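In pairs, describe these two lines:
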Amino acid sequence: MYGFHQEVMKIVKQYAGQGYETYFRPRPEDLPSFARDFNVDILANGGPWILVQVKRNRDELAGRCRHSPLCGYHEQATGMEVRLA
């Protein structure tokens, strides 16, 4: 668990370094309604809002958006991007 947390924090720092305002494990009320039931690890704001869901291993990541319910909803949010890391 500690290693995963460190990896997520690296991604948070990457977005912050690019000028994004970042939120680690945002509260449901901080998210758009369509994303509240998903495990969003990072919310980044710096132009378009970006929702990031971090996967624990390459097998989870291999499915990309095809297997992430969150990705199916991103078109409902104008100006939002969904990313898997």
